[in-house]
Amino acid sequence: MDMSATFKLNKNPEKKFQHSISFSVYNLYGRKNSLFVNYNKVENSDGELHIPSNLLDGNRITSHSYMFRFTPSIAYNFKFL
Amino acid sequence: MSLRYTILYLVICLLLPACEEATNFPLTTENSNLVVVEGTLTNENINHRIKLTRPYKTQNQTPEPISGAAVTLKDETSTYILTESPVESGEYYTPQMRAVTGRVYTLTIVYNEKEYTARDSSVPVEALEAIQYKKTGDRYELVFSPSLQEPNFIEYTIDWRNTDACTGACSGRLVYYDLKTIDVNEIYKPDKEPFLFPVGATIVRKKYSVSTTYREFLRSMLSETEWRGGVFDVQRDNVSTNLSEGAVGFFAVSTVVADTTVITE
User: Fold this and answer.
1) Closest Cα of chain A to B228: distance in Å?
2) Is A50 within 8 Å of B190 when comparing Cβ atoms?
3) Parallel, antiparallel, or unpaired for β A71-80 and A61-67?
4) How far apart are CA A68 and CA A28, in angstroms?
5) Mean pLDDT, 10 residues at a time, chain B of 265 residues
6) pTM of the entire structure?
7) Interface probe with B: pick from A31, A37, A50, A54, most Cβ of B within 10 Å
């Protein structure tokens, strides 16, 4: 889920410009949204994932990559009328 | 000034974390009647193996063998009948023979009233260059680099089971592909796990020549396996094949040179 809110900053509508500030949050729940899934890696004793060099290592695991969990942002908007 | 650094730090913390972790997604599988063919005929005077299996249904599964097929191999002058050994293993062996460089070989598989065929011929192989390895801690590691002009791959079979340094698994099989292509997914392929071995290990190297169609197969196979998961992946696709009637895999004919090295101090 994403959320955003925009606040108008100028009180007087007769002015020759408008400005506002926006707050938004991408991925509010911080879910691990998969970018891609791979089936070709092995996990070593440190928990790191690698392509195996030794083809006799048979135990491949499924792994997924994700990015941008809970991401807030602020934007300032300025517009001449 | 400190506020600026704090904001910069926060931005980096929020935007950069891209993470890869093990997961347990359920895989949807379907029963498939596909025939998977693996086999390489070489210039070694041995019983060459053609392996017939069904596709995997789950990850790390031992593939189900295809037993009872009639498998033959033909060249311009002879026909060789392959024998399944052991019975119901899905592994079919030629009589002792060697493939001649440049000669076209045709593989024919008759199974379930369907006939699958594949053709390939080998190209000459270039000589093996000196093996390169370096010391990493108290062990050694192979150093891979492209060699000469023609596409090839080198298979390394490493064994130190008969040395004092053997504890646990003491062997490995590594393959270094040098296909002489420029593939961005190969350049940015994911890291491989280092493979270390001790003094006294025996390394058998076999360098295989690669025909044009075999190179296409290897390139698409690597794009779906070793090269998958880097920064610039290609669109997923079926791996190319030289088999007819919808079978998958590849029947290759290759010229091989080999040598053996024992690692010393």
Assistant:
1) 7
2) yes
3) unpaired
4) 10
5) 76 66 82 91 97 90 94 96 96 97 97 96 96 94 93 97 91 96 93 93 97 96 92 90 96 97 91
6) 0.85
7) A54
A59 interaction partners in chain B (CB closer than 8 Å): 60
Whole-angstrom distance, CA of residue A51 vs CA of residue A43: 9
The nearest CA of chain B is from the CA of A19 a distance in Å of 23
HSE-up of B159 (CA within 13 Å, CB side)? Answer: 6
Number of H helices, E strands in chain B: 3, 17
- What token pair was written down for B57? 């249904």
Q: CB burial class (10 A; 0-12, 13-18, 19+) of residue B265? A: exposed
Quickly list H helices, chain B: 2-15, 184-187, 212-224
Structural domains in chain B plus CATH codes: 36-121 (2.60.40), 133-236+256-262 (no CATH)
- Label residue B224 exposed, middle or buried (CB < 10 Å: 0-12, 13-18, 19+): middle
**Cα–Cα distance between B143 and B134 in angstroms, integer?**
7
Q: Hey, are the CB atoms on B171 and A59 less than 8 Å from each other? A: no
Torsional sign, CA B125, B127, B131, B132: negative
Can you give the pLDDT at residue B145? 92
Choose among B153, B116, B122: nearest CA to B249: B116
Residue percentage of chain A with pLDDT more than 90: 44
Intra-chain end-to-end CA distance of chain B, in Å: 55
Cβ atoms of A6 and A63 within 8 Å: the answer is no
CB-CB neighbors (< 8 A) of A38 in chain B = 228-229
